[in-house]
């Protein structure tokens, strides 16, 4: 809730809540699909309740087959999301698996059709997410992108893209907006990305990682006998806390409604 308020105050146009971030913040667990849909939806509800910033979420594999995808869309739409991704990775990892793998193109397309059919609000953005560039290369990725856009999804999310040539190849076969799952030096020019259909370029989980390090450094400093005065420039100011906690708003409500 605090993070989304800060993001909104800085002028971000949309927020992204990844499944990995949910697993880390709700369970203190890695991104291996051990968080339930209920836990994920509950956290999303709290985020959406705290801000008016549109929220896009990583719905992983939809928590099962195509019918589970429909239930996932129902729960996340009810929680308040503005957009969600459904991916083609085999999740959770199967017994004996030696690494990541993808479901077949027909199964992927079926999941996306189910997601589109399940939404109640036509403005809910459904995004087909493929790991093709990461796991299979450009030719198969193009087949997956073409199959995905024929299902009625609103955008394509590319995981693992590292070069301009890869983005150009996808842009040539896709009429849909593109989302990149990570920035590389070659894909850092925002104007070039915009000219090639990219509308969102994610920057990774830097805010989460920065917060973890800040907590660690602060606790370590105090545990080793450091003073609170030495932390003055490293902790949130009253102005920042007001943004994160809506302190002035609550004080106004106290003044108006408790007297």
Explain the overall architecture:
The protein has helices at residues 2-9, 19-27, 37-50, 66-79, 105-118, 132-135, 138-149, 164-173, 190-195, 206-223, 238-245, 247-257, and strands at residues 15-17, 55-58, 83-87, 125-130, 155-158, 178-180, 198-201. Helix content is 49%, strand content 11%. The protein is globular, with a radius of gyration of 20 Å. The mean pLDDT is 97. By secondary structure, it is α/β, with parallel strands linked by helices. The two termini are 28 Å apart. It folds into two domains: 2-90 and 100-206, TIM Barrel (Alpha-Beta Barrel), CATH 3.20.20; 210-257, no CATH class. It has a seven-stranded parallel beta sheet.
Helix/strand/pairing category? alpha/beta
Topology pattern, helix = H, strand = E: HEHHEHEHEHHEHEHEHHH
Query: Main beta sheet: strand number and arrangement?
Result: 7 strands, parallel
Mean pLDDT: 97
Counted up, domains total: 2
Sequence of strands across the biggest β-sheet: 1-2-3-4-5-6-7
Number of helices: 12
Report the CATH architecture of the largest domain. Alpha-Beta Barrel
The residue fraction in helices comes out at 40-55%
**Which stretches are poorly predicted, pLDDT < 50 over at least 5 residues?**
none
Q: How does the overall form come out from the CA principal axes?
A: globular
CATH fold group of the largest domain: TIM Barrel
Number of strands: 7
N- to C-terminal separation?
Answer: 28 Å
Share of residues in strands: 5-15%
- Say which CATH homologous superfamily of the largest domain is assigned: Phosphoenolpyruvate-binding domains
What is the CATH C level class of the largest domain, in words?
Alpha Beta
């Amino acid at each position: 809730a605090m993070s989304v308020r800060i993001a909104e105050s800085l002028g971000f146009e949309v927020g992204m809540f990844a499944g990995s971030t949910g697993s880390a913040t709700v369970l203190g667990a890695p991104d291996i699909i051990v968080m339930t849909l209920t836990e994920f939806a509950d956290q999303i509800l709290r985020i959406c309740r705290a801000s008016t910033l549109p929220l896009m979420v990583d719905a992983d594999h939809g928590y099962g087959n195509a019918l589970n995808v429909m239930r996932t869309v129902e729960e996340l739409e009810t929680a308040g999301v503005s957009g969600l991704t459904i991916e083609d990775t085999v999740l959770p990892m199967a017994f004996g698996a030696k690494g990541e793998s993808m479901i077949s193109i027909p199964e992927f397309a079926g999941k996306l059709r189910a997601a589109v059919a399940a939404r109640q609000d036509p403005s809910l953005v459904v995004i087909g997410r493929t790991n093709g560039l990461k796991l299979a290369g450009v030719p198969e990725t193009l087949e997956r992108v073409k199959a995905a856009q024929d299902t009625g999804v609103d955008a394509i999310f590319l995981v693992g893209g590292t070069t301009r040539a890869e983005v150009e190849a996808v842009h040539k076969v896709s009429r849909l907006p593109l989302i990149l799952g990570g920035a590389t030096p070659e894909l850092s020019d925002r104007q070039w990305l915009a000219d090639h259909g990219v509308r969102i370029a994610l920057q990774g989980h830097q805010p989460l990682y920065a917060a973890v390090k800040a907590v660690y450094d602060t606790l370590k400093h105090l545990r080793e006998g450091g003073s609170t005065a030495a932390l003055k420039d490293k902790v949130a100011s009253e102005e920042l806390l007001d943004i994160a906690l809506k302190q002035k708003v609550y004080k106004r409500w106290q003044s108006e409604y408790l007297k």
